[in-house]
Amino acid sequence: MSEYTCEDIDLLAYLQERLTGVEREVVSRHVATCLTCQRDVAQLEQAQTLLPSALAPVDPPVDLKAIVMAEAFKQRSPQEVLRQRSPEEVLRQRSPVGTTYVSSNAYASTDASENADGASSNGRRKRTSFARRMLPWSLSAALFLVSLVLTQQVVHDRQQVNGLQAQLAHATTAVALQPTHILQNASGKAVVIKTGSGIQLIVYISHVTPTRGSEVYHVWLLNHGTRHSAGIITTSSGGTGVLQVSLNGQHAQFDAIGITLEPNAETTEPVGPKVLGTNTL
């Protein structure tokens, strides 16, 4: 077999292993020495890898078989196919296996058939070459459309996130906790997040005296002077701690916060000094 040029090679068939052994050997030798074809092979391999994940599978219509069969019989019915068969074809089908029949004009048509096959082969090569050259552009266009769809989805998701952030900001209240003379360097913050069934309360304190033994910082919530416990905080050795608790019903209603240092977690009323608090809720 003569060597192929770039225009003659079907690289897609080469990658999909649809070539004969001899054809594949010739194409392999050409690709090994041709930088253009090597680049095209790399692009096709990349496209084959990306397309399955980029394009969603499409199920064939349920009536596809019926449509194809109807179209086929619309052109020629089974009876017409039988009527148009040559006597040699009918005789060949009815003859025993191993018997060969040659039509009277078979030899006369051999040269014309070979010429037609040669012309058909050249035409296929040209069409294949054109298709091979256009394939990377087609794949690039498909990937561009997929990227465009994904970009629109990202923009939509970002708009939803911004909307949720705006709602969260509207439903969240954060206030600073002011220190008392007991611990003048202490600081803290209370964050109230409205939920569907109540609130989420987060209290963070820092620069306080670290708790020792059974000591705790008790967080008290006040509603028009009525006090109830929200929970306790034990701190790290660096004097920081946090309380996170969900509240609902009457416990979610309060207008002030006070934090006291208690000897243990069992106290139901403040017995230790107040270290942090706020009246601006």
Give an overview of the whole structure:
This protein has 281 residues and is an alpha+beta fold. The chain folds into two domains: 6-98 and 120-160, no CATH class; 172-278, Superoxide dismutase, copper/zinc binding domain (Immunoglobulin-like), CATH 2.60.40.200. It is elongated. The protein has seven helices and eight strands, in the order H-H-H-H-H-H-H-E-E-E-E-E-E-E-E. It has helices spanning 11-15, 21-33, 35-54, 64-75, 78-83, 87-94, 110-170, and strands at 172-179, 187-194, 199-206, 216-223, 226-233, 241-247, 256-262, 274-278. The model is unreliable at 97-104 (pLDDT under 50). Helix content is 44%, strand content 21%.
Quick rundown:
With 281 residues, this protein is α+β, with helices and mostly antiparallel strands.
**Helix proportion range:** 40-55%
Strand content: 15-25%
Low-confidence stretches: 97-104
Count of DSSP H/I helices: 7
Q: Write the H/E string, N to C.
A: HHHHHHHEEEEEEEE
Largest sheet: 8 strands, antiparallel
Order of strands in the sheet with most strands: 5-4-7-8-1-2-3-6
Average pLDDT, rounded to a whole number, is 75
The SS-based structural class is alpha+beta
Q: How many extended strands?
A: 8
* C-alpha termini separation: 90 Å
What is the overall silhouette?
Answer: elongated
Gyration radius (Cα, Å) is 41 Å
> What number of structural domains do the residues give?
2
